[in-house]
Specification:
- The complex is a heterotrimer.
- Chain A is of the alpha/beta class.
- Chain A has helices spanning 20-30, 70-80, 87-106, 139-152, 218-225, 257-260, 274-277, 287-299, 318-324, 326-336, 391-413, 422-433, 444-458, 465-482, 495-519, 565-572, and strands spanning 7-16, 37-40, 57-58, 121-122, 132-133, 157-159, 162-170, 173-181, 187-197, 230-231, 236-243, 264-266, 309-312, 345-354, 357-359, 372-374, 379-380, 462-463, 528-529, 542-547, 554-559.
- In chain A, helix 3 packs across helix 11 (391-413), helix 9 packs across helix 10 (326-336) and helix 14 packs antiparallel against helix 15 (495-519).
- By secondary structure, chain B is of the alpha+beta class.
- Chain C has a domain at 23-110 and 124-179 and 221-245.
- Classes of the chains: A alpha/beta, B alpha+beta, C mainly alpha.
- Chains in contact: A-B, A-C, B-C.
- The interface between B and C is large, with 74 and 58 residues.
- The structure holds flavin-adenine dinucleotide, iron/sulfur cluster (2 copies) and FE2/S2 (inorganic) cluster (FES) (2 copies).
- The site of one iron/sulfur cluster (SF4) has 17 residues of chain B, from helix 4 and helix 6.
Chain lengths: 593, 253, 254
């Protein structure tokens, strides 16, 4: 393939990912004009993983609970992240989330309303106040659709169904990206002064997952390959409530909103076991705690017929359920033949979110590579060891915008144009076409299935040194086989071919997760080691950072940044700011009406 | 109960093609998309199919199952117990390959819709019962099944004259927003081509989100068009009152 | 726009539910044709529609009588419900599907002849549906008067099968008329915001909202009202006709 004949585009700011973070970044980058902006997604516009988000976006607007403040949101987020979050990221986040949510309303999102006619907020696990702005149980869709229509009304070039396979460098700074159109397989080269990485997570590593097919970690893997630091890779969130039965839908998310609206968890002995594990917050405890509790109940032989727990909301009025959780009602009715207004249903933990990712600065989302900015699920810093529900949708808004601004400013300040090394482009073309030379090579779907089995068995909710080591061996063996993946057919919309690169990226990230998990010899948040069951203060001082090197992954300990006294004081309080008077009562204030 | 399902999936591209039969072992609660994935993993790696969420949230997996436009991830296979399940791409859009069609026309139409244009700054004061109506339209997952089934597009290929039901829903969503100040009625009538819809309601029948496309979006918009253009008496009084033809009727506070 | 793809060797028969797609339009064809033939027979061959205190809905109000005319009396009335129903959104669905095959059923390919003729969409005249609604209300008032009259026999108040038929007919016609889409628009649908204009403070729902809600609730079943009221008119007229012809006798219940 000749680079001259290749379809080539130049932009000041190139956004990889058309999920919430990507679109928000593109909107911001294009908002002042004078900067050419493009956004790329590997699916159609408006289909990104963000559409699946259900529960809501957390922001301390305080429409229902006036004492809520950014300090409380800060307190909750640090606490749930077990204090390995980047405090500065959390501070920026907690302060800016309310304006980001209001901005969406200005652009056409229609949130549910309070009796006063303001944005309605719902209770969620680990939040001290009712804080999640929501639209029934399809908040992510509303957010994405709003941003999508905002973006197309602006001067932003959108590339749909283009998979980026490689980031390109000009010396030590970013220079562009390369990819191909899924529809016909032809290559496309993007030159860009600045790139915003917003490619989402990698939940497809696990067999039981709530994530969409896109979540294969392409962005993180590509950034890692060109030398960006990845952090906290061992921190994988398992959402406590995924569907279990029928097997066709196993893993499909049951929104935390069910518990937020009053749903209760029972074991096979009809016991509300959460009362035992977290007497204070019960069902609305943080996700790591609830997921682990369900896991332990099943281990103890108190699981449901298909190995989960019962979730029951049928004590609420049918109309209330249908209005507040219409998607859930429909999902269970059509896919599971269960009427949730009448009967309890089985749930079990499902892989949901990646707290780790590309290390990004708080103010600018800058990564360790000049010109490369990261926002959204692919980035790391905000959530620490466990993400609070609703914090991700707010995350993608706050840091999508910040990455957009930083990329715009960076590109604007760059005097010279970027140059791209042709040989790299040619090598990449050869690499991407390679699988066609192996029509009888390894089947990528089969490798993916095996990888999922390995990760689910050795690096899921509960981990141990021995298990992780076995897992690592298996992953490395799979990587070896992965080099021989092949495909047949043509380049026209060929999912077998596309899968090769997805699987490659997942194989790489799996290794990092296991290596990180081996390093963290303690239990913290989403990371639970059966051989080190306690949270160790010493370990809490460190983040683990992964660096790419020719002879394999290099894991380093870097100290968790220390909070300034004002913030440290907030975190040290025995109760969340604003809840002093309510101390002693349950975490979540009683619901009105 | 049968231990396997028989699928007959269209394989081919713009040049043509034919249905190919595949056998898939039966798993309880299986949806059509699961079966297609099984075929992909075991029999035909390059079988092209679009999907994202497998949870009826993203609207990617639209196809025609036994002739009816449906979401593959929401259609249970046990509905077709004992039948061969024919799976074909949406017919209204040009085929790319197998079950994947080129739906880019829809995105071109989307660009023509004037953006939401509120007259005031957020936070808005709106009552839940005032926004219930437009929230129905926000359920749309842009699966384009309604576009696929609409005979104006499907049989008459009036893509240049009619935006299609999906975008009438989008127009209604903005037009009926309590805070919106833009006037879309002329566009709905002219470029939008609402007159081409003959309210035969197939869009409503296939909508996986159960949006009452015709009753709640298209017909009310048709009535608003009639208010403006086909109501001589209203027009007479409007002229008498000296009201601006293009101004919105109510001014929310 | 390129010609759409047409894959589909052995395209299977479309089936929306358990019934084949053609059942509904075929039923519509039979029912509508039957009604129209009956109506023509009634209108063209009869000048009277009254049996004692019962008045057939075809002949009410007695417009012809107001002008002293005695032939084709039903015609002066019939045109009003006719154009009301003809321009009704629900009937449009039914006749565009069943009679002009636009389309015959969902996802059913339209006949070959449609490919050569340009499709122009709906008839513009249907936009005047809102005016026909007022005509329908005008007629409805008289039908309610007839209902009252139907309970007043020569020997005072009473209930006959006929009285009940007229009552049910009036109820169904009222449901049909007040579930009309044009009416739904007039009564509130054209507003974007109810709370914005209320004088009772933003939290109170204004009366207009309540009415719109109720009309909307009726409107969901507009198709049902349309069919039910068509058959009730048919039955009511047939009942009176048969009484007049002496074929049957009215049963007094009370
Ligand atoms: C079922 C479910 C429910 C959730 N509910 C909530 C909730 O209630 N509240 C909350 O806060 N969070 C929730 N989350 C989490 C939240 O939705 C996600 O973390 C968030 O949407 C991530 O957004 P993003 O923009 O970072 O990435 P994504 O939305 O994942 O977007 C990634 C984008 O990158 C593109 N991309 C990826 N790889 C490539 C490539 N190689 N080339 C080109 N493009 C590429 C994709 O096409 C896509 O457009 C939920 C998640 C799930 C799965
Ligand atoms: S009702 Fe109108 S928009 Fe819907 S399918 Fe029929 S013609 Fe198309
Ligand atoms: S209106 Fe319904 S059928 Fe049409 S695109 Fe939206 S969800 Fe799909
Ligand atoms: S895969 Fe998302 S709607 Fe079917
Ligand atoms: S819409 Fe049917 S009567 Fe008006």
């Amino acid at each position: 393939m000749n680079i001259e004949t290749m379809e080539t585009h130049s932009f000041d700011v190139l956004v990889l990912g058309s999920g919430g973070a990507g679109l928000r970044a593109a909107v911001e980058a294009a908002s002042e004009g004078g900067v050419s902006v493009a956004v790329i997604g590997k699916s159609l516009l408006g289909k990104a993983h963000t559409v699946m988000a259900e529960g809501g976006a957390a922001a301390s607007i305080g429409n229902l609970d006036a004492p809520d403040s950014w300090q409380t949101h800060f307190y909750d987020t640090m606490k749930s992240g077990h204090y390995i979050n980047n405090y500065r990221t959390v501070e920026v986040f907690a302060k800016e989330a309310p304006s980001r949510v209001l901005e969406l309303e200005q652009w056409g999102a229609v949130f549910d309303r309070t009796p006063e006619g303001l944005i309605m907020q719902r209770a969620f696990g680990g939040h001290s106040f009712r804080r999640l702005a929501h639209i029934g149980d399809r908040t992510g869709m509303e957010l994405l659709r709003t941003l999508q229509y905002k973006a197309i009304s602006m001067d932003i070039k959108v590339f749909q169904e283009v998979t980026v396979t490689r980031l390109l460098m000009d010396g030590s700074r970013i220079a562009g990206a390369m990819g191909y159109y899924r529809s016909d397989g032809h290559f496309v080269l993007f030159k860009a002064k600045a790139i915003v990485l917003a490619t989402g997570g990698w939940g497809k590593l696990y067999k039981v997952t709530s994530n969409s097919w896109e979540s294969t970690g392409d962005g993180a893997a590509m950034a890692y390959r060109i030398g960006a630091d990845l952090k906290d890779m061992e921190m994988v969130q398992f959402h406590p409530t995924g569907m279990v039965w029928p097997p066709g839908v196993a893993g499909l998310l049951v929104t935390e909103g069910v518990r937020g609206e009053g749903g209760l968890l029972y074991n096979s002995e009809k016991e509300r076991f959460m009362v035992r594990y977290d007497p204070e917050r019960q069902e609305l405890s943080t996700r790591d705690v609830v997921a682990r509790s369900i896991f332990k109940e099943v281990q103890a032989g108190r699981g449901t017929p298909h190995g989960g727990a019962w979730l029951d909301i049928s004590h609420k009025k049918a109309d209330f359920i249908k209005q507040k959780l219409p998607g859930m009602y429909e999902q269970f009715l059509t896919l599971g033949d269960i009427d949730i207004t009448k009967q309890p249903f089985e749930v079990a933990p499902t892989c949901h979110y990646q707290m780790g990712g590309v290390q990004a600065q708080a103010e600018t989302c800058a990564t360790t590579i000049p010109g490369l900015f990261a926002a959204g699920e692919v980035a790391c810093g905000l959530h620490g060891a466990n993400r609070l529900g609703g914090n991700s949708l707010a995350d993608i808004l706050v840091f999508g915008r910040r990455a957009g601004i930083a990329a715009r400013d960076y590109a604007g300040a760059l005097k010279s144009d970027v140059t791209i090394d042709e040989s790299v482009v040619e090598a990449e073309v050869a690499r991407v076409l390679e699988p066609f030379n192996r029509p009888d090579g390894e089947n990528p779907y089969a490798i993916h299935e095996e990888l999922q089995a390995v990760m689910s068995a050795h690096a899921a909710i509960v981990r141990s040194e021995d298990d992780l080591k076995v897992g690592l061996g298996k992953v490395l063996a799979l990587q070896e086989r992965g080099r021989r993946m092949g495909t047949s057919g043509s380049r026209v919309y060929n999912p077998g071919w596309h899968a090769v690169f997805d699987v490659e990226n997942m194989l790489m990230l799996s290794e990092l997760i296991i290596r990180g998990a081996l390093e963290r010899k303690e239990s913290r948040g989403g990371h639970w080691r059966s051989d080190f069951p306690d949270e160790l203060p010493e370990m809490g001082k460190w983040n683990f950072v992964h660096q790419y090197s020719a002879d394999g992954d290099r894991v380093q300990r870097v100290p968790v940044p220390e909070m300034p006294p004002v913030l440290a004081e907030i975190c040290a309080r025995p109760v969340a700011p604003g809840r002093e008077s309510a101390a002693g009562t349950s975490q979540v204030p009683p619901r009105k009406g | 109960m049968a231990e396997e399902f028989v699928l007959s999936i269209f394989r081919g591209d713009a040049e043509g093609g034919e249905e190919v039969e595949y056998h898939v072992p039966r798993i309880e609660g299986m949806v059509v998309l699961d079966a297609v994935h099984h075929v992909q993993a075991h029999d035909a790696q390059d079988l092209a199919v679009r999907w994202n969420c497998k949870a009826a949230h993203c609207g990617s997996c639209s196809a025609e199952i036994n002739g009816m436009p449906k979401l593959m991830c929401k259609t249970r296979l046990d509905e077709y117990q004992g039948e061969t399940v024919h799976i074909q791409p949406m017919r209204t859009f040009p085929i790319i390959k197998d079950l994947v069609t080129d739906v880019s026309w829809n995105y071109e139409v989307a660009k023509k819709i004037p953006a939401f244009n509120p007259g005031v700054a957020a936070p808005f004061h709106m009552q839940q019962w005032d926004v219930d109506r437009i929230q129905e339209f926000h359920h749309c997952i842009e699966c384009f099944l309604c576009q696929d089934v609409c005979h104006v597009l499907r049989d008459h290929h009036e893509q240049d004259e009619y935006y299609g039901p999906r975008f009438m829903v989008k127009m209604a969503e903005f037009e009926m927003h309590p805070m919106d100040r833009a006037d879309r009625i002329p566009q709905i009538k002219n470029e939008g081509g609402i007159g081409l819809c003959n309210v035969t309601k197939c869009c409503t029948t296939v909508c996986p989100q159960h949006i009452h496309i015709t009753d709640n979006a298209i017909i009310p918009l048709k009535e608003r068009v009639a208010d403006r253009y086909y109501d001589p008496i209203r027009n007479f009084f409007r002229k008498l009152g000296g009201k601006d033809e293009n101004a919105k009727q109510e001014t929310p506070t | 726009m390129a010609q759409a793809s047409q894959p589909g060797l052995n395209r299977p028969k479309t089936q929306a539910g358990k019934m084949p797609y053609w059942v509904e339009p075929v039923f519509t064809i039979i029912a509508f044709s039957g009604f129209v033939i009956y109506a023509l027979w009634e209108v063209l061959f009869h000048n009277m529609g009254t049996y004692h205190n019962y008045v057939s809905p075809f002949f009410s109000p007695d417009i012809a009588g107001w002008f002293g005319l005695h032939i084709l009396t039903a015609l002066y009335v019939a045109w009003m419900p006719l154009i009301f129903r003809f321009s009704c959104y629900y009937y449009r669905k039914e006749y565009y599907r069943a009679f002009s095959f636009h389309p015959f059923g969902c996802a059913v390919t339209e006949p070959k002849s449609h490919q050569t003729r340009h499709y122009n969409g709906e008839w513009k005249i249907n936009n005047l549906h809102r005016y026909t609604w007022f005509l329908a209300v005008f007629v409805l008032i008289f039908l309610w008067k007839d209902v009252v009259q139907g309970f007043i026999f020569s020997n005072g108040f009473g209930v006959g099968i006929g009285s009940l038929i007229l009552l049910i007919n009036a109820i169904l016609l009222t449901g049909y008329t007040f579930s009309c889409h044009a009416w739904r628009n007039m009564i509130g649908g054209r507003k974007d915001c109810f709370s914005c204009t209320t004088t009772h403070g933003p939290k109170q729902k204004p009366a207009s909202y309540g009415i719109w809600q109720r009309v909307s609730a009726l409107n969901v079943f507009h198709g049902w009202w349309a069919w039910a009221s068509m058959f009730s008119v048919w039955i009511a007229d047939l009942y009176v006709r048969l009484l007049m012809m002496g074929v049957i006798h009215d049963v007094r219940l009370f």
